[in-house]
Amino acid sequence: MIELGLSRISRLVQQSPLLWKAVHVAGTNGKGSITAYVSGLLAAGGVRCGRFTSPHLINRWDCITIDEEAVQESLFRQVEDQVKQRDKQLGLGATEFELLTATAFEIFNRERVEVGVVEVGMGGRLDATNILSNVLVSVISKIGLDHEAFLGNSIKAIAREKAGILKSGVPCVIDGTNSSEVLDVLQSRIRELGIDAVVAHPETIDQRIPELARLFKELDLEPHQKANMSCAVIALQKALEQIRPEKKVEDLLPTLSQIRWPGRLQQISLRPLVAREEPVLLDGAHNGQSADVLGKYVDRRLRQSGRSVTWIVAASHGKDISEIFEPLIRPGDSVAVVAFGPVDGMPWIKATDTAHLSKHIQSTQGVSAVKDFDADLLGAMNWASTVADGGPLVIAGSLYLVSDVLRLLGDKRPAL
């Protein structure tokens, strides 16, 4: 169940005041990567750091980390039970995400973190994470159309909801690669609050942090990765000025090359599940903006000499499947369509009907072959590997599909 609002979460956490400072990150795309960069750099700088992201990757507790390690299941369940008992005693009827948020915040208290890097769940203004008061810096990443039923059906309306995390007296960093419409909305709110703001853009980062610009030249990065890193490093700089003024952000930059965010342009091996030696690209692109980024990456990196691509895809029910798959799938490609399994803690999340998705792809994309595997992910992997015959193979369309793939492989969320 999704029900935005701050009244229930405020009462839930009122019982245990937050003892840590926060970096708060909102946006449509890139906020998870920015969160990972900021927390990884803080930990590298010796700051005891917690991180809270959503959705979880493998298990419900891996969305909460302390110093880049997922919390122990026993601690998570102990605190979650206490939060649920509190909810019951107060008669709040909190949502699943509110219970999870309260659990994460309570774990940060118990683990005595100094800074919690917190990713907004949905929107910003009415998101459960927006009860944060002791915020060092707010960050707003790339904004696009997503969750329109809850946030509004225009880019401006969605930007206004995201801007709801901005607070008087708290500096902010916004992704300068946003559209002019989005930037106008964000800057209007910044002016209203009279806060210090930095518009981060990789093209001008050399004027503020020359060492980061040099790092961009050394690393083989995509444009969106540069934008996310620019936001993260400037946010880190703002945070360190308040908690570790003696530390220089430049000294921590080498750590950036070691930080990975699972499920985003991730190269994996499907062995021993299938007989394929070549790596497979795994990406959680699940809306038009992220699909466009993935599509450009695949076109540039995998379609050399006109090679076709084999796909394994799924989508969440209610998503605009044309918006997701038109930037990805090209004439001559082959596609295995699957449904991801039940999502622990989020029973309202359902996969798009595979017959419907298969029919749509077959009729609109001019593909070579489409095969419906329903919930048989292993069968889809075997078929796609055979069809690809060593050529490019990409798994995309849903973060929940990413989770199923990694769970099937027995993967664990890597320490960053």
Automatic annotation (TrEMBL):
GO terms for biological process: one-carbon metabolic process. Pathway: Cofactor biosynthesis; tetrahydrofolylpolyglutamate biosynthesis. GO terms for molecular function: ATP binding; dihydrofolate synthase activity; metal ion binding; tetrahydrofolylpolyglutamate synthase activity. It catalyses: 7,8-dihydropteroate + L-glutamate + ATP = 7,8-dihydrofolate + ADP + phosphate + H(+). Keywords: ATP-binding, Ligase, Magnesium, Metal-binding, Nucleotide-binding, One-carbon metabolism. PROSITE patterns: FOLYLPOLYGLU_SYNT_1, FOLYLPOLYGLU_SYNT_2. One of its GO terms (cellular component) is cytosol. The keyword ATP-binding applies. The keyword ATP-binding applies. InterPro entries: Folylpolyglutamate_synth, Folylpolyglutamate_synth_CS, Mur-like_cat_sf, Mur_ligase_C_dom_sf. It comes from the Eukaryota. It is an enzyme of class 6 (ligase). Gene3D superfamilies: Mur ligase, C-terminal domain (3.90.190.20), Mur-like, catalytic domain (3.40.1190.10). Its EC number is 6.3.2.12. Belongs to the folylpolyglutamate synthase family. This is Dihydrofolate synthetase. The lineage of its organism: Eukaryota, Fungi, Dikarya, Ascomycota, Pezizomycotina.
